[in-house]
Amino acid sequence: MRRPVIAGNWKMNKTPAEASALVEELKPLVKEANCDVVVCVPAVDFSAVSAVIEGSNIHLGAQNVHFKDSGAYTGELSAAMLKESGVEYVIIGHSERRQYFGETDATVNQRVTAAVKAGLKPIICVGEKKEEREAGYTDPLVAYQTLIALTGLTGEEVSDVIIAYEPVWAIGTGLTATDEQANETIGVIRKAVAGQYGQEVADKVRIQYGGSMKPSNVKGLMAQPEIDGGLIGGASLKAADFSAIVNFDR
Hints:
Layout: E1 5-9, H1 16-30, E2 36-40, H2 46-53, E3 58-62, H3 79-84, E4 89-92, H4 95-101, H5 105-118, E5 121-126, H6 130-134, H7 138-150, H8 155-158, E6 162-165, H9 179-197, H10 199-204, E7 206-209, H11 218-222, E8 229-232, H12 239-246
Parallel strand pairs: 1-2, 1-8, 2-3, 3-4, 4-5, 5-6, 6-7
């Protein structure tokens, strides 16, 4: 059985003081969770959140990582910097990074490689735009994005990554794929991994759904056999909402 993982993507929200308050409120609400709980926070919040989550079951995540160890890359953070800041997980290739900051499938792969090399757990985002789904390109597109992102990794390394299927048309729009649509596409992703790395590896990879998962739809989505958790946006900024998703099995 794959252990579910629920990760909050705070995006560009919460000052250090606000972050501390949110996590303090969240801790008692998720302490008995039957899943891995991750908060992916802005870099300025690493220190504050690390202090609050110490001794709890909440893990710290970042929202991006650079693919070089060091150098003249103003504004970027290396995997070693994240690791020393207490980060365990890192989101890579989110659609907003692709849309606004020029992220490509090739640079996603470079960032994944750097993260894995440093001992971080990447949360690799893949997903289609509305027009791509309507044109029937969803399956080949997400399979391609997945395999490019994983290029160069061993089967053992792949088995420990997390993939987040995020239909771009469902991020921040309030729209969501049906439970069956999400399950079907995540099945396509798993099949692509199996084709490249074998079924045993594919059966270990945890694949989240990340398109507007919220308290009102989490039970249906998490009941699907291929869905191993969620990458949560807006709902992760409210302790009550995020904890309701984390405690989906109650």
